[in-house]
Amino acid sequence: HDVELRHRRRRPFSKQRPHIPSHEEEESSLEQGEEEEEKEEANKDSSVTADYGKSTRWGNDDPSVFAVTRVTGLQGEYQICNGYGTAKATPILKNHWSTYIVEDDFRFISENGLTAVRIPVGWWIASDPSPPAPYVGGSLQTLDKAFKWAEEYNLGVIIDLHAAPGSQNPFEHSASKDGSQDWGTSAANIAQTVQVIDFLASRYAASPSLLAVELLNEPLAPRASLESLKTYYRDGYNAVRKHSSEAYVIMSNRLSSPDPTELLEFAGGLPKAVVDVHYYVLFNSMFDTFTVQQNIDFIKTNYSSALSTVTKQNGPLTFVGEWVAEWQVPNATKEDLKMFANTQMDVYGKATFGWAYWTLKNVNNHWSMEWMIKNEYISLKI
């Protein structure tokens, strides 16, 4: 489950610019595990037969919660549900939700200078407890509990539609079946996605913890066209507004778009609209040989400039919705990593809606903000 940690200076919670953890994930990630018996069992039941040959954005940077046989490298909730089948996937996922997303997470977030949590969900949550095959029920109950705990600990919640019907990018975190990307290619598809937003906004509008609804995570250009995206964002915005005048509405920039400002005029005309950008010094071979200082400089120059480009006085609010204190530097010291994390927080702190760390809990230490805080690599307390 992905709790994204959102950080602002600690104060009584109000619906103003929070800082967020990302609970990894409401839409569960899969990482290949070590237990051969489980792999063989999954394979006998139903092999995962996706054929996407390219590398994905997540790779092995997410919790090792499940062991499954993978044909293509995709490791999403679709693959575990399809691979195990409903009978076996149901108890596996319900156990995951009940043990990996717990009240102590929200207590920890509250006690460590964070003000909100970004929770990614899949489109099938709107059909819970009986979602379409191969998905299994239970995620909605988990989100309900998350809101309950957020209210108890005075935290905001950003509901992030991380997987849309048809998949808005070919990666596992959009629940792509096989590396295909078909979201936004028809009016019916967009309408179905708007219905999901309407369901979520209706269900949680009365909660004092509903901070924002993120309409879509990381649509990939050019397949996700700007025209279809704006159509959806307009309809999704209106769906949220039908139920709440207070909640912010977050619109993710397109991955691989040549123009990072393409949403500014559109979103700038909508009250309480936010544009989301994600910054990593990963997922590109140019970073493979960067030194400590080169990474620091890249954040201070390139990403600082990029954020300034989308943060305009009369434009929408800006949100660095994902970042992580991880890089390709071998044998980095604790002081190196602290400087790297602090540099990012300094730069991304200029975003007018704050930032979110990917993620709260992870088996890979630097991807776990909980681990980074407990081991004093990151401190948010004033």
TrEMBL record:
A molecular function (GO) term: hydrolase activity, hydrolyzing O-glycosyl compounds
Give the start-end ranges of region Disordered: 1-56
Q: What keywords would UniProt list here?
A: Glycosidase, Hydrolase
- Which Pfam families does this UniProt record tie to the protein? Cellulase
Biased composition annotated in UniProt, kind: Acidic residues:
24-40
- What InterPro entries does this protein map onto? Fascin, GH, Glyco_hydro_5, Glyco_hydro_5_CS
**Domain Glycoside hydrolase family, chain residue ranges per copy:** 91-362
Lineage start: Eukaryota, Viridiplantae, Streptophyta, Embryophyta, Tracheophyta
State whether keyword Hydrolase applies.
Answer: yes
Q: Where is the composition biased (Basic residues)?
A: 1-20
Under SUPFAM superfamilies, the record lists: (Trans)glycosidases
Name of the protein in question: Predicted protein
Hydrolase keyword on record: yes
**GO BP annotations, alphabetical order:** actin filament organization; polysaccharide catabolic process
Q: Which family does it belong to?
A: Belongs to the glycosyl hydrolase 5 (cellulase A) family.
